[in-house]
Structure formats: C-alpha cells, structure tokens
Amino acid sequence: MSAPPKDRIRVLLIDDSAVVRGVWRRILEPEPDIEVVASSGNGRLGVEALSASPADVAILDVEMPEMDGLTALPLLRAACPGLKIIMASTLTTRGAKVTLQALSLGAADYIAKPTSLTHSGALTSVAQELIAKVRALGRPVRPGPEALTPRATPRPSTVMPRVLAIASSTGGPNALSSVLRGLPAGFMLPILIAQHMPPTFTAMLAEHLGKDSGRPSCQAESGTSVRAGEIYVAPGDYHMIVAATSQGPVIDLNQGPRENFCRPAADPLLRSVAVVYGPAALVTVLTGMGEDGRRGSEAVVRAGGTVIAQDQATSVVWGMPGAVAQAGLAAAILPLDEIPRHIARLAKVG
Q1: Is 169 labeled as catalytic in the residue annotation?
Q2: What are the residues whose beta carbons fall under 8 Å from the beta carbon of 229, sequence distance 6 or more?
Q3: Domain boundaries, the chain
Q4: How far, in Å, CA of 293 to CA of 324, rounded?
Q5: What CATH number labels 5-138?
Q6: pLDDT tens by residue, 10-27
Q7: Which of 15, 68, 292, 311 is catalytic?
Q8: Please, which residues bridge with residue 285 across strands?
Q9: Could you tell me how many helices (H) and strands (E) the chain has, helices first?
Q10: Which residue out of 56, 196, 213, 297 is catalytically annotated?
Q11: Sign (positive/negative) of CA torsion 196, 165, 101, 108?
C-alpha cells in the first residue's frame, strides 16, 4: 500500500547519463514510500528542478558537463536547506577523491554506481543499499529519550585505555575528521577505524584523515604491528581485527562473511579489541545506518572496556550509535564536538 503523497520521501535525480537516471528511477519508483519528483541531466538543471519540485533527497552525479556535482552541491543546499544529498560515484581513485570532497562540503552520503548495468546481482546489491540510504536520510528524525538526555554518567574505571577503536558509516568521514582533529597532540593511543566504504575509498579516506589530523595514517595491512599514535583504517571488502602475539598486537585482515551486510564491519573489530585489550579497550561509535557495532560493543563492555556513542542531534543517521545507546552499552552519549575531549580525559591527556 502506497504512503499518502505528503508522507512519501521526495527524490531528485541528477546525472548526465539517461541510462543511470533510468536505473535509479526503476529502483526507487516501486517503493510505496518513495517518489521521484524530478530528473535532470546536469547540476544547473538540477538546481532549477529543485526550485520547481522541492525534494527531501537528491542523488547527485559527481562528474557532469556544464555543472558538475561539486559545483552544484552548495547551490542545491542553498536552494533547499533541509535537502540530504547522496553522491553517485564511480569506484575509481578520482571518484573516491571527489566524493570525499563532496562529503566535506555537506553531502550526507554516497552510493557507488553499479559496475554493470546488466548484471542482476550487482544491481540488486546497489538497489538495496540505495533504498536503505534514501529511507534513512529522507525520514525526519524524531528525537527519542536518549537524544533529549545526551550525556550519561561514565562508568568509573581504574584502567587506562591502551587502544581507541572507532566505528562509523553514513556521515562517518566528517565525524571521524572532527574527532581526530580534536584529540590533543599528546594523545598516543593507536586508533583502529572501521568505516563502511568500498576499496579505493578506504585508501583515500586513510590519506585524508592523516592530512586532516596530522597523525600517521594508513589503510591497514595484515601483519602490521599496532603502534602508538598511528591510525589504521580497515580496507574496503576486508574485515580488520587485532590479534595478540608475543611481539604485541598486530592487525589481521580477512574476507569472512559480511556482518550486518558490511565488510569491513565494526563488530569483528570490536570483538577482537575486547579479547586483546579487555578493560583497556576504548570504543567510540559514530553516526551510521543499522546496528553494526552493537554486538561488538557488548563484547567490549563484558570485558570491562568503555564505549562512547555519538548523540542523536549531531548524527547524520542515529542508527549505529542509537543501537548502542538504547542497549545501555554507552558509558557516555555525547555531541560530536564533545567526544574528543571526553576521550582525552579518559586517556588522561591534555
């Protein structure tokens, strides 16, 4: 049964390829709660279409003639301040670089264009992801009790943390940059990051986070020793875990089954952190769709470690941190700009 027109999520498609616009339309239009209100072949026409047909979500191509996605992005946001923008990108180094730029300029998320427009498996996967993202971003956030009380009393701990593990997804790149920039120079815990992204994107993200934070940062490789003060980003299509050895903790990568429909996923990383670091594990769950990170956070708390969740008001999507908060696993539920200071206090730095 279709939702009433006023309750449907209104979507604007902007792509220079009529074929791609057709793919997006065929994916979205059968959904009873989603309506494609306009379709445009470049950024300029998209801005004009938005003026005539207000939308909740825009799917914006990165590269287009006349006006590309980066140029159109601020104009679209100015024309419709509440608009959530999903960048449509190719799985290339350039596509990843431009997409990360777009996210830093205010895009809410991205979708990787299918590598084949005829392979049913590839299209099904992209369709599921796109529909989920449109729904997560297009539905207005209704604050729950946790959003109205964003701070919880931290559990007392006598154990100094020895590692910081961070889980994030939708809205994650900007949130990660904010947290890492906010950590004091004397913060020297190793930082392990599971961000839901495909290959190429994670390598670019690691480079971006290193430049942004001024800390050594890399896409993780199997066998790498976990060193103080360095950032390790899980590579796309691999789970990243940490393992104990006689020489100290090392990183291990695997292509085990997807968890929470993701690889990399946060849960495998957090479970391994709980085993290796026990009560010295410090975890932060940032903005993202779904519940990835909840089960891993349970393992961390059972081992005596500490979990911090981003609050609803500052999350692009309060799925992952909300699941942790609602399960009672968070020692603190904080606005994004307070998280670095809280981490530093727990690590007794700064």
Answers
A1: yes
A2: 187, 188, 189, 190, 215, 216
A3: 5-138, 152-346
A4: 7
A5: 3.40.50.2300
A6: 999 999 999 999 999 999
A7: 292
A8: 167, 309
A9: 12, 14
A10: 196
A11: positive
**Is 56 marked active-site?**
no
| d(C-alpha 148, C-alpha 125), whole Å | 36
Count Cβ atoms below 10 Å from residue 153 Cβ, excluding itself: 7
Quote the CA–CA distance of 98 and 239 in Å, as a whole number.
25
Percent of the chain as helix, strand, coil, to the nearest 5? 40, 20, 40
What's the full length of the chain, in residues? Answer: 350
Token readout for 89 is 């990108």
Q: Quick one: tokens of 116?
A: 């084949």
Token pair belonging to 209: 């986070």
Start-to-end CA distance of the chain, whole Å, equals 56
Q: Which two tokens stand for residue 244?
A: 């104990």
Q: DSSP secondary-structure letter at 127?
A: H
DSSP secondary structure code for residue 154 in this structure: P
Which two tokens mark 161? 């943390």
pLDDT tens-place string over residues 304-339 = 999 999 999 999 999 999 999 999 999 999 999 999
Q: How far apart are CA 73 and CA 271, in angstroms?
A: 38
Q: What is the largest CA-CA distance in the chain?
A: 65
Q: Which residues contact 30 (CB under 8 A, 6 or more apart)?
A: none
Question: Is residue 196 annotated as a catalytic residue, yes or no?
Answer: yes
Give the pLDDT confidence of 224-281 residue by residue, as tens digits.
Answer: 999 999 999 999 999 999 999 999 999 999 999 999 999 999 999 999 999 999 999 9
Does domain 152-346 sit in CATH 3.40.50.180? Answer: yes
The residue from 39, 40, 169, 217 that is catalytic is 169
